Amino acid sequence: MTFVIALAAGYLIGGIPTADWTARRVGLDLRKAGSGNPGANNAMRIGGRRLGANILLLEITKGATAVFLGSLLAGDPGMVGAGIGAVNGNIHNPYRRFRGGQGLGITAGVLLGELPLTGAVGILVITVVVITTRSSPAGWWRRSVRSWRRRPPCRSPHGASMLAAGPS
Predict the structure, then answer these.
(1) Where does the pLDDT of residue 160 fall: very low under 50, low under 70, confident under 90, or very high at 90 and above?
(2) Distance of CA 21 to the CA centre of its chain
(3) 33-70 burial string, b = 16+ CB within 10 Å, else e?
């Protein structure tokens, strides 16, 4: 039962719209500007590096806080449940009609809270990807899938039928 409470608490913590609140304090509405995504990447694009960094730190803190609370409620299973809940609450925000962000910042906080060394390596990898591609990994992935749907890797009708049939 405490696991379910940790999961629900994580979900509610993850759903707190800190990015929206922070951006509104400086006069910006992240949902109406840029990509419309309430996250650090969009905040950095439209509000500058300082705003983006502040929102990222808040998201990381939300994830780590949920994990800490989960560990107090139910030990290691509670940490995992609260972390899963927090990420889902961030993506499917209960306070914003189940429309939230991509969940990257809060996932970093959950990883740092549960597995500090792994979380630090993950944040380093994400940082390198963002700096080199100048795009968030989730947005890059979404664009890649969309472009693949428009332009399948195999253009030959015979090749597509061979791919669909599988190995013989």
Answers:
(1) very low
(2) 17
(3) ebeebbbbbbbbbbbeeebbebbbebbbbbbbbbbebb
Say what the pLDDT of residue 19 is: 87
pTM for this prediction: 0.73
Domain ranges within the chain, ordered by starting residue: 2-115
Give the pLDDT band of residue 152 (cuts 50, 70, 90). low
| Residues 114, 67 contacting (CB under 8 angstroms) | yes
Dihedral pair phi/psi, residue 13, rounded to 5°: -65, -45
Query: d(Cα 132, Cα 51) in Å, to the nearest integer?
Result: 20
Pairs from 23-32 (Cβ < 8 Å, separation ≥ 24): 23/47, 23/51, 23/55, 26/51
Residue 129: how many CB atoms within 10 A of its CB? 14
